[in-house]
C-alpha cells in the first residue's frame, strides 16, 4: 500500500475539523478554560480533576468517540487522520476531558482483535470512557517487567502514569500471567481498586497511579493474551495523537503571541515592529508546519503504510516535542512581565505542552528509538 494524496485529508476530514473548531471556540473560550481549571493559584492546593461534564456529554452526542471505532462495532470507521484533526482542535483549546485517553484506549482495543475488545469498542462508541493502565513504575511498558500480576483470577500490584484516571469509567490493564502478559478491562469503580492522584503541572488533565488489591477479573474481561504485541502495534497511534495535540496547542501559542505583539507597544512601536521578536515567531511557524506535516504523515502511514508507522510516528513526536518547548518559551517571554503571571492564559498551554513533551517519551528518547529502527540496536 502507498500513502494517499494530501495524507488522505479529504472533504469529510475538513468538515469534521471545521465543525469541531467552531464548537470548541463557542463552548470553551480561553477565559472560561482559565476559570474552570485555574481558579486557585495556591501551589499547595489539592490535586483535582476539573472538567465540564456537560460539555463532554455534548462531545459524545456529536460522535467524536465513534470516529475510529469500526463500523462493525457501531462506530464511524474513519481514519486516524480524521481523529488527528479532532485532537488538533482539542489541543488548540486545551480541552480538559477524557477524549484523548479514550481515543488511545480505542487504538489499543482495535489491535486486540478479540470479541471482548470489539464489544468494548461498541460501548465506547456509545459514550463509555477508558484509559490505559499499562505502565510500570519505570515507565517502559514494552520492557520485560510489569508491576501488575494476575494470580488465581485476581489482579495485584500497581499501574503508573495513568492519564485522566479520575475522568474515566474503565481501564485497560496490563498484567503478568503464567503465559506472559495479558490485557484486561477493569472498571474504575470495582472493589479493591485505589486511584491515587499524582501532582502534575498540567491543569487541564490529571494523572494517577492505581493500586490493585486482589481485584477479581474473569475471562470475559480478557482483551488479549499478548499485551506487548498489542501495545507495540498501537504505540505509533498513541504517539501521533499526542503530537497532534501539541500541534494544536502550538498554533494557539503562536496566534496569541502574534496578536499581543500587534497591540503592545514599546519605544513608540508595536512589539511586532522589532526584528528580534519577529524572526523567532517565523521560526516557530516553520516548526509548527514541520511538526504538523510529520504528524499527518504518521497518521496516514498508520492507515495505509503500517510498515512505516513506527518510524514516522517517532519522527512526529520528536518534532512536535521540540516545537512545543520552543513555543512555550517564546510565548511566555514575548508576553513580557505579564507572561509570568497566573492571570495570563499562556501558562495553561505551556503546562499542557510540557506534559505532552515527556508523555510516551521526549524528543531525545524518540530519536534514540528511531535510530534503532534505522540502524538496529545500538550496543554499549
Order of helices and strands: HHHHHHEEEEEEEEHEEHHHH
Q: How would a crystallographer describe the biggest sheet?
A: 4 strands, mixed
Please state the CA-atom Rg, rounded to the nearest Å.
21 Å
- Second-tier CATH architecture of the largest domain: Up-down Bundle
Helix content: 40-55%
Number of β-strand runs: 10
Briefly note the structural class of the backbone: alpha+beta
Domains, number = 3
Name given to the CATH homologous superfamily of the largest domain: Butyryl-CoA Dehydrogenase, subunit A, domain 3
Shape: globular
Proportion of strand residues: 5-15%
What is the CATH top level name of the largest domain?
Answer: Mainly Alpha
How many separate helices?
Answer: 11
Q: Under CATH, the topology of the largest domain is which?
A: Butyryl-CoA Dehydrogenase, subunit A, domain 3
Euclidean distance between termini CA atoms: 37 Å
Sequence of strands across the biggest β-sheet: 1-4-5-8
Low-confidence segments, given as residue ranges, are none
Report mean pLDDT, rounded to a whole number. 92
Amino acid at each position: 500500500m502507498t500513502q494517499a494524496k494530501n495524507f488522505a485529508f479529504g472533504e469529510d476530514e475538513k468538515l469534521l475539523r471545521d465543525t469541531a473548531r467552531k464548537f470548541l471556540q463557542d463552548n470553551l473560550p480561553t477565559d472560561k478554560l482559565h476559570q474552570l481549571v485555574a481558579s486557585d493559584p495556591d501551589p499547595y492546593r489539592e490535586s483535582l480533576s476539573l472538567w465540564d461534564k456537560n460539555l463532554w456529554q455534548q462531545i459524545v452526542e456529536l460522535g467524536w468517540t465513534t470516529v475510529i471505532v469500526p463500523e462493525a462495532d457501531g462506530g464511524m470507521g474513519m481514519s486516524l487522520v480524521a481523529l488527528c484533526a479532532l485532537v488538533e482542535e482539542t489541543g488548540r483549546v486545551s480541552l480538559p476531558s477524557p477524549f484523548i485517553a479514550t481515543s488511545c484506549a480505542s487504538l489499543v482495543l482495535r489491535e486486540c482483535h478479540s470479541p471482548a475488545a470489539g464489544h468494548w469498542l461498541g460501548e465506547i462508541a456509545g459514550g463509555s470512557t477508558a484509559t490505559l493502565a499499562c505502565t510500570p513504575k519505570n515507565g517502559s511498558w514494552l520492557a520485560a517487567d510489569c508491576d501488575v500480576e494476575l494470580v488465581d483470577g485476581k489482579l495485584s500490584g500497581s499501574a503508573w502514569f495513568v492519564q485522566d484516571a479520575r475522568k474515566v469509567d474503565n481501564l485497560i490493564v496490563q498484567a503478568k500471567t503464567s503465559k506472559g502478559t495479558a490485557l484486561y478491562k477493569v472498571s474504575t469503580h470495582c472493589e479493591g481498586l485505589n486511584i491515587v492522584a499524582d501532582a502534575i503541572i498540567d491543569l487541564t488533565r490529571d494523572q494517577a497511579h492505581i493500586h490493585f488489591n486482589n481485584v477479581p477479573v474473569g475471562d470475559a474481561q480478557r482483551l488479549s493474551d499478548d499485551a506487548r504485541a498489542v501495545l507495540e502495534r498501537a504505540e505509533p497511534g498513541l504517539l501521533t495523537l499526542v503530537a497532534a495535540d501539541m500541534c494544536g496547542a502550538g498554533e494557539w501559542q503562536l496566534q496569541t503571541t502574534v496578536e499581543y505583539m500587534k497591540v503592545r507597544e514599546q519605544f513608540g512601536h508595536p512589539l511586532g515592529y522589532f526584528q528580534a521578536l519577529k524572526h523567532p515567531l517565523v521560526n516557530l511557524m516553520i516548526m509548527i508546519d514541520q511538526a504538523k506535516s510529520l504528524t499527518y504523515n504518521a497518521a496516514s502511514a498508520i492507515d495505509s503504510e503500517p510498515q512505516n508507522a513506527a518510524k514516522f510516528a517517532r519522527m512526529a513526536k520528536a518534532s512536535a516535542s521540540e516545537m512545543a518547548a520552543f513555543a512555550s518559551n517564546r510565548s511566555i517571554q514575548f508576553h513580557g512581565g505579564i507572561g509570568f503571571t497566573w492571570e495570563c492564559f499562556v501558562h495553561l498551554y505551556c503546562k499542557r505542552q510540557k506534559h505532552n513533551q515527556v508523555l510516551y517519551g521526549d524528543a531525545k528518547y524518540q530519536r534514540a528509538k528511531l535510530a534503532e529502527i534505522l540502524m538496529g540496536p545500538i550496543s554499549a
